[in-house]
Each structure stands twice: as structure tokens, then as C-alpha cells.
Here is the input.
Amino acid sequence: MATNGLVTGLKVFLPVMFCVMLATLIYTIITDGLPEPDRRDVFTPWFATTIVDFYINIVPIAVWIVYKESTWFGSILWAILLVVFGSLTTCVYLFMQLLKLTPQEASEDPMYFLLLRDSFKDGVGLRDKKSLVVTARFVFGALGCVMLGALVYTCLTDGSPFRMELLYPWMVVLLVSFYINVAVLSVWVVYKESSWIIGILWAALLLSLGSFGTSVVIVVQLFRLSPLDPLYLVLVKNTNRAGDMYERTHSAVLRM
Here is the structure.
């Protein structure tokens, strides 16, 4: 029942967030115009830092979409849409993936079947000499450092971000899109942890520290993997990496 409730909740949450984001975007364009590059009232130091924050947070979502898609054309197309339209694309893509779940998948472990590519849903756990785990640790660690540096620099040069004058229309649009993506990532973070308390604490880190928190969470999850593990194992719970699923896949490969 709880798993079906999760699927239903996401099917409601994603369209609502899509509508909120679209309405916010349209309203801001009508009332405040387009955010042209020469508008100094829009492109403030904290707006630039928030853009960096926004796009670093998009990286893990884009990587997942590229992994999830079966063709390079689909991967590139969705990645471009994600870069251009942000959380609007996130909501549409996730909703489409939820609709693909069978009733059995939705009742068993919807997050597992949602996150993994179709070709891996019959089991996970094989080791791969060409694993990208170490590379991913470095990449997300570097992204976290970039974001931390940007935050520190902007704080030193432009002061605190907690100022009412910074909540101008286009900053609000950016923040709405940013936090929709954070909410999506938080669902994954809570799903990953065996303890609700730890999951909620990690989600709070994402909400408070943005993409720096996201990078920390992902690096921690990557260090829970062996350097020889397939990178996609970072998507699923530890309980999905062993036992019957591993044995089924391992046996199937040996027979090949």
C-alpha cells in the first residue's frame, strides 16, 4: 500500500509542480519581461551564483536521464530540454517514466523499477572492470568544490543572500525551478537510506546547501560502492544489490 501511495503521490506532485513552474514563468515574463543579458537588475552576483547552483543540481538528473534512455538521440534530446527548461523537463520526464510502470512494479518497489534502465531490472550487482565509480567521485567532488567556492566568494563580495531585495521576480522563478529539482532529488535520497531519520537529514542538507549538499550526498553514496561496481548501483538501495537479484543476474551471465 505504501509503495502504491508513493507512485500516486508522485503522479499528483509532478503535474502540480509543473503547473506551478509554468505559471510562475509565464507570469514573470508578462509582468517583468525577459531576462535579457544587459539587465543588471536581474543578473546580480547572487543570481549568477544561483544559476551555477541550479545547473550543478541538474547534472545528476541529466546523467540519470542519459543512462535511462535507450538511444543516444533520446538521451541528448532530453538533456538539452533539461538544460533549457529546467524543472519543467524534470517533471515531464519523471511523470512519463511513472506511467511506464506496470501495476506489479508499482506495488513491489516502484523506485527501483523507476530508476533502473529496463535492461537491468531483472537484477543488479555485476562488477565491471570499466566502472566509472572513481571518475564519478572525482566529478561530483569537483562540482561540490566549485559550488562551495562560488558561495564563499559571493558572500565575501556581495554579502548575505538572505536579503529581501534579492527576491525579485526572476530570482523567484529560478528558485522555484531549483527547489522543484531539489524535491525530486530528495525523494531519491530518502529512498536510498534504510532509516527515515537519516534520509530526512540528508534531504535537509540538500534543501539548505543546494548543489553543494547534493554533491556531498552523491559522493558519500559513491564511496559506499566498490571501485569495480557498476555506476548505476548508486541509484538503488543496498538491499537491491545483493541476494536473489545478484544471483539471478550473475547466473544468467555465466550461462551466456
